[in-house]
Amino acid sequence: MRTVAVLSLKGGVGKTTVALGLASAALDRGLRTLVVDLDPQCNATAALDPPPTRGTLADVLASPRRSVLNAAITRSGWGEGVDVLVGSEDTESLNDPAPGSRRLGRLAAGLTELHRLIDHGQLPYRLVLLDCPPSLGRLTRSALVAADGALLVTEPALFAVSGVQRASEAVEAERAEHNARLRSLGVVVNRVKPRSKEHEFRVAELRQTFGELVLEPALPDRVAVQQAQGACAPVHRLRSPGARELAGAFDTLLANTTGTSP
Ligand SMILES: Nc1ncnc2c1ncn2[C@@H]1O[C@H](COP(=O)(O)OP(=O)(O)O)[C@@H](O)[C@H]1O
Ligand SMILES: [Mg+2]
Fold first, then answer.
1. Is the CB of 3 under 6 A from ligand 1?
2. Across residues 12-28, what is the average pLDDT?
3. The domain at 2-258 falls in which architecture?
4. Looking at residues 40-59, what average pLDDT do you find?
5. Which residue owns the Cα nearest ligand 1 atom 3?
6. Mapping DSSP to helix (H, G, I), strand (E, B) and coil, where does residue 11 land?
7. How far apart are CA 206 and CA 204, in angstroms?
8. 143-187 pLDDT, tens digit each
9. Given ligand 1 and candidates 17, 36, 139, which is best to mutate, with the most ligand atoms within 8 Å of its CB?
10. Ligand 1 and 222: CB distance under 6 A
11. What ranges do the domains of the chain cover?
């Protein structure tokens, strides 16, 4: 079982898109997956279109017990194979909590309890994807306490190198302080426009700085991303050329981040 935190320095670069794309690839391969929506904006929850639940991540924070976890987890609208631990806007206050906030410690506790149940065969998942909120704030850092892999997402833009650097440092800090299991799985470059010289330059700059940590393939900018999210459907279910290109890219990324062949 693998728990992958998908994170970035800032919002809007494609964390949710990458988490959903990996979930879509996992569904296609029959790899039971749970998406945990840590973002108070709940975009992953919306795109996964679950039925109403009795609980949310906010309840797990209040009480990280098995029964509470079960009430916040449900099958997604994508069908059997991808479940979701539904997000809540109530988690917003946690991103900048008063020092010593006990609720934040409970987030790590809730995720650790989730891990324990999976390890003991009481939940069926082989992949857990933690869709982080749009900053390296405390919610994201707590996710890193419970993850064994960190996947960084960036766009091929000015400041991408320094952004990836800072995100990598956050991963290293959590590894050193709280979670020796945590590994950086690499950097996904998202929204690359195929004929853009600027993007080509930025991707080359990232590769020069971070070497093999920059994952292949980079993800192209394709309208199929919005079409899939708008239709609450996995991108593998869409038939356009752009969707097929993305699906292939996510298959390879899934293989590279879970250590299995595509
Ligand atoms: N490869 C892509 N091609 C086209 N649109 C994309 C791509 N990746 C992300 N987007 C769009 O960009 C917006 C932000 O992406 P999102 O995954 O929500 O970012 P984050 O989770 O980092 O805030 C969304 O509207 C999404 O549909
Ligand atoms: Mg997001």
1. no
2. 97
3. 3-Layer(aba) Sandwich (3.40)
4. 96
5. 221
6. coil
7. 5
8. 998 899 999 999 999 999 999 999 999 999 999 998 999 999 999
9. 17
10. yes
11. 2-258
